[in-house]
Design a protein that fits this description.
Elements lengths: L6 E9 L8 H4 L3 E5 L2 E9 H4 L1 H8 L2 H19 L5 E2 L5 E2 L2 H10 L1 H11 L2 E10 L1 H6 L1 H4 L1 H11 L3 H35 L4 E4 L5 H4 L4 E11 L3 H14 L5 E9 L10
C-alpha cells in the first residue's frame, strides 16, 4: 500500500522483523516500514480523522475513543504473538514518511538496546481485591483487640457497652487497614520472587473499579517467559490460600510492555 499525500502515518510499534501474522483481514491495513534495520508497524489514516485538530475532537467521543483504543491494543497484541515490540501510545501520528524515518533514525540505537532488554519477557498486571464485609465478619480471628472488646461489651452496663461499641468500630477500621497491608505484602513478596522488575500502580477507588471489593494491590510485573507458568501457579495458590477472607486476584497479560520501556521520548 503506497502512502497517499493526503494521509497521515499512524504508528503502532516497532519490531525487529516482519511478524508472521496469518490473518489476512488484520494485515490488509497494516504496513511494515523498514527503517535502520528495524520495522515500524503503521497504517495510513485520513486527516479528517487524525489531524491534530480532528483527533482532539474525536477523543471527546467516548464510542470513537473506545473502539479505536481497543483496535490499537488488539493490533499490538497480535504482533506480540510472534515478535517482541516497542509499543507506542494510541494516536501517535506522523505527517510524513520522512518525519517518521528521521525520528526512528534518531532513536535507532535506543530501540536496539530496548529490544535486548524486552526480549523473552512479558508484562503482566496483578490487581488484588478484598471483601470488606467478609473481613469484618471474621475480624475476631485477625485481631485479639476485637475479641477483648466483645467480651467487655457482654459484661458491661448499657452505657459502657455503647462507648465500647463505638471504640470497636474505630478499632475495626484500623485492623482492616492492617489486614489489607499484610495481605498485599505477602502476595507481592510471593509473586515478585518470580519476576525481574515491578512497578506499583495507583490503588483505585471502588467507584473507578466498579467493584464492591476494595482494591489493596495494583502492580505490574516484568517476567521472563520461562517463569510465566510458575507465576500463574503461584497466583492460583495464593487465591486458594486467601479465599477465606474474600480475596480476589485479577491477573491479566501479557500486555504491551509500556510500563518497562526505558525510552522516555
Amino acid at each position: 500500500m503506497n502512502a497517499d499525500q493526503n494521509k497521515l502515518i499512524y504508528l503502532y510499534c516497532f519490531t525487529k522483523k516482519v511478524p508472521s501474522i496469518l490473518n489476512p483481514e488484520f494485515q490488509q491495513d497494516l504496513v511494515f516500514m523498514e527503517i535502520e534495520g528495524l520495522y515500524a508497524a503503521v497504517k495510513y489514516v485520513s486527516e479528517s480523522e487524525y489531524s491534530e485538530e480532528n483527533i482532539k475532537k474525536n477523543i471527546s467521543d467516548v464510542e470513537w475513543l473506545d473502539a479505536n483504543v481497543r483496535e490499537h491494543l488488539r493490533s499490538i497484541t497480535i504482533i506480540m504473538q510472534t515478535e517482541t515490540v516497542i509499543p507506542f501510545n494510541f494516536g501517535t501520528i506522523y505527517k510524513s514518511e520522512k518525519s517518521l524515518r528521521e525520528f526512528a533514525s534518531q532513536y535507532a540505537y535506543d530501540f536496539r538496546e530496548s529490544f535486548l532488554y524486552l526480549e523473552n519477557r512479558e508484562e503482566w498486571s496483578v490487581k488484588v481485591f478484598c471483601d470488606r464485609k467478609m473481613i469484618i465478619e471474621n475480624i475476631g480471628t485477625f485481631s485479639p483487640n476485637i475479641s477483648d472488646i466483645d467480651q467487655q461489651i457482654k459484661s458491661s452496663s448499657p452505657g459502657k457497652a455503647y462507648i465500647l461499641g463505638k471504640k470497636k468500630k474505630e478499632i475495626i477500621e484500623t485492623e482492616i487497614k492492617v489486614v489489607y497491608n499484610n495481605l498485599s505484602k505477602k502476595i507481592f513478596t510471593a509473586l515478585n520472587e518470580l519476576c525481574d522488575e515491578y512497578r506499583f500502580n495507583i490503588i483505585l477507588s471502588n467507584e473507578l473499579t466498579e467493584k464492591n471489593e476494595d482494591m489493596i494491590l495494583n502492580v505490574a510485573f516484568f517476567i521472563k517467559k520461562e517463569n510465566i507458568d510458575h507465576f500463574i501457579q503461584c497466583s492460583d495458590q495464593l487465591m486458594h490460600e486467601y479465599s477465606g477472607v474474600g480475596m480476589i486476584m485479577d491477573i491479566t497479560g501479557p500486555w504491551p510492555p509500556y510500563t518497562f520501556l526505558k525510552i522516555s521520548h
